[in-house]
Amino acid sequence: MTFFYKDVYLNETARIAGPYEKNGPMANTFDKTYSDFYFGRDTWEQAEVKLMEESTEIVLKKMKKTKQDLDVHISGDLLNQLVASNYAARTLAIPYFGIYSACATSVEGLILAANMIEAKQVKTALCTTSSHNNAAEKQFRYPVEYGGPKRKTTTFTVTGGTAAYVSREKKGFKILHATLGRVIDLGVKDVYHMGAVMAPAAADTLYRHLQNTKTKISDYDLIMTGDLGKYGKQILIEYMASEYGITLTNYEDAACLIYRDVKEAYAGGSGPACLPLVAYGLLSKKQSYKKVLLIATGALMNSSMTNQKLSIPAIAHAISLEVLS
Amino acid sequence: MEKSRYKDLVKKNTPKEDRLTNGVIAFLTGGLMGAFGEFLLQMYSYFFSMPTKEASVFMIVTLIGIGCLLTCLGFFDKWVHFARCGLIIPITGFAHSMQSAAL
To answer: For residue B47, is pLDDT > 60?
Structure first.
């Protein structure tokens, strides 16, 4: 399913990052960074709530708007029952959608917002996403102090919060089209190789997006996937070539851009905040891009299901943006 | 793409783990751990003139204590990262995992 938009704009974004990202190559694009994992709160989960609240404040400040100007708030994160989003929504008190597609949440939020604005149901929308390395590791893997040996294909959850302001005002980036992903599962069971889990979903969404919008790879100045990592990126390139006969050019993966060769990061970053942190940052700094395609990929992993030896389903949502001159 | 073909594609793009290097490091650090334990054991039985059986209990308690303390202070995980199974298989690994969960 591909949606076409005539009059929807992604006006402004805010990006906050944690200590590891601060030392990475994207450091100069963040609005705010922190040197520790608590940000003045007591626990990691509460710290993640703060990431969302603060990124919202920053985006509203940039737009010179107040909370009262927002019609709807769409938010998602990795934690159980979306606690970070729910608690941030408690503070903001704007009519609220809580959504989950793991690391594909950011684009899913933008699609929902754009659809509602295009249908003239709402005038403005706020999309927030966040992830916190320690909170996510605690929930999905081991306690952080354990420090057990990890495989090379493991990804490292990004600590960051992003907010995006979407409305009909002609400013920032025009949202052109968006393709809603299908859940794809090619039988990968390895929880330490998320790139392999998500690559087929990304390929499927990318192919359908190109078909439905009648565009070519070369029409985009940048195609960016969310968090496939070093090895997943290679898998996607080969998958596209052998399955659809499409050669990927101008292609980047956000996971490979957010960290320098950090030892702890292994194959690269991951998490819902990974793609928006990198993509919004690049778009705001680099003026040479005209048309970009963002594909957020999410592994819909659940530890109970992986313990029952089931394979991991994945989803990818795509959205194309045009930079307004 | 069929699952089996995709499996091959994934396999092709998955890096090999450095099993030999990791194994050698784990062997050496594990051996050092063992030597340290033996040293404690002999020391306890010599200085406190107790039978080896009782001294071994004290030795284990000492190792658990050290493991927990280092985990709390926050650098045991970095050592585990380097030494891998050399530190996880001995009793320190158990102390470390329990302590991590508690933290």
So the answer is: yes
Distance of alpha carbon A104 from alpha carbon A288, whole angstroms = 26
- Give this prediction's pTM: 0.87
* pLDDT on residue A143: 64
pLDDT band per the 50, 70, 90 thresholds, residue B71:
confident
Out of B1, B13, B77, whose CB is closest to A146? B77
Q: Pick from B1, B84, B96: which is nearest to A146 by CB?
A: B96
Classify domain A9-167 by CATH number: 3.40.47.40
Count of domains for chain B = 1
- pLDDT mean across residues, chain B: 81
Q: From chain B, pick out residues whose CB is under 8 angstroms from the CB of A186.
A: 1, 3, 6
Partners of B12 on chain A (C-beta within 8 Å) are: 238
A230 with A268: CB under 8 angstroms?
Answer: yes
Considering only the top CATH level, what class is A173-323? Answer: alpha beta
* Cβ within 8 Å, pair B6-A153: no
The residue range of the domain holding B30 is: 22-102
- The CA distance from A116 to A113, in Å, is 5
B1/A231 touch (CB, cutoff 8 Å), yes or no: no
Fill in the DSSP letter of residue A218.
G
Retrieve residue B75's tokens.
């650098």
Q: What is the mean pLDDT of residues A284-289?
A: 81
